[in-house]
């Protein structure tokens, strides 16, 4: 078993399902103490239970990433429980698509910008503020998307804008704070094995048949494969990787 994160504390947002849960489990498997955060307690508690079943240590904290006060509470709870904040994975995000930009409700625009952009800004600000006080600094990985900087799709203008902003924020923050010992990168997943990649009314088996012809690899990425990319960037294996945006998308943006 790899122990790349032994003795380190990791914080993962949006950890109640999908990529967030897979990342939290992978970090715990490699030795990290993990704080899992999200808006709903029950799925977070399920993630904690899965970690503890494997012999790991975890804490669930409910929080709305778009609220600055929640970030102060979240970082404080992390440090109070485990003593440090060494790795942060800003995965929480929302997707509301299907309409051309001219028909997009303003509420949908704000919902995606509030969580996907403001949420990442507030996360970075709170995480860096603590990490730069630590002698060992820290590593942050933001979850962006291939939709935005790398590709476009009809009916997802707000989501594309929000995720392109995550990439821009990542690179700007990386430049601002590498001298503080805080190393910041992003992962941009394409279609992965989550509900977000299902089209309206589509089943998982129907998705398998569709992407067989749409993606060069012929399948969507497993959440564990995206998590592996996150762990690489958060680990000492990527000690000189700063401000990158690592695409994991089965070749879909080629």
Automatic annotation (TrEMBL):
GO terms for molecular function: oxidoreductase activity. It holds the Pfam family adh_short_C2. SMART domains: PKS_KR. Keywords: Oxidoreductase. InterPro entries: KR_dom, NAD(P)-bd_dom_sf, SDR_fam. It is an enzyme of class 1 (oxidoreductase). Residues 8-190 form the Ketoreductase domain. Its EC number is 1.1.1.-. It comes from the Bacteria. Belongs to the short-chain dehydrogenases/reductases (SDR) family. This is SDR family NAD(P)-dependent oxidoreductase.
């Amino acid at each position: 078993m790899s122990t790349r994160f032994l003795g380190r504390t990791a914080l993962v947002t949006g950890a109640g399902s999908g990529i967030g849960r897979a990342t939290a489990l992978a970090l715990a498997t490699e030795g990290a103490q993990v704080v899992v955060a999200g808006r709903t307690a029950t799925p977070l508690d399920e993630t904690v239970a899965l970690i503890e079943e494997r012999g790991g240590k975890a804490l669930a904290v409910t929080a709305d990433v778009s609220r600055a006060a929640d970030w102060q509470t979240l970082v404080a709870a992390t440090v109070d429980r485990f003593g440090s904040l060494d790795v942060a994975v800003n995965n929480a995000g929302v997707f509301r698509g299907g309409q051309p930009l001219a028909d997009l409700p303003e509420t949908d625009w704000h919902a995606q910008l509030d969580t996907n952009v403001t949420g990442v800004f507030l996360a970075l600000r709170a995480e860096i503020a603590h990490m730069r006080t630590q002698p060992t600094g820290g590593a942050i990985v933001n979850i962006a998307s291939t939709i935005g900087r790398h590709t476009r799709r009809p009916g997802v203008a707000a989501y594309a804008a929000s995720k392109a902003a995550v990439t821009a924020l990542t690179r700007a923050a990386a430049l601002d704070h590498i001298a503080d010992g805080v190393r910041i990168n992003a992962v941009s997943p394409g279609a992965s094995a989550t509900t977000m990649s299902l089209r309206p009314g589509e089943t998982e088996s129907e998705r398998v048949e569709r992407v067989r012809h749409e993606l060069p690899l012929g399948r969507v990425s497993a959440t564990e494969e995206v998590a592996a990319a996150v762990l690489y960037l958060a680990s000492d294996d990527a000690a000189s990787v700063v401000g990158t945006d690592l695409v994991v998308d089965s070749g879909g943006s080629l």
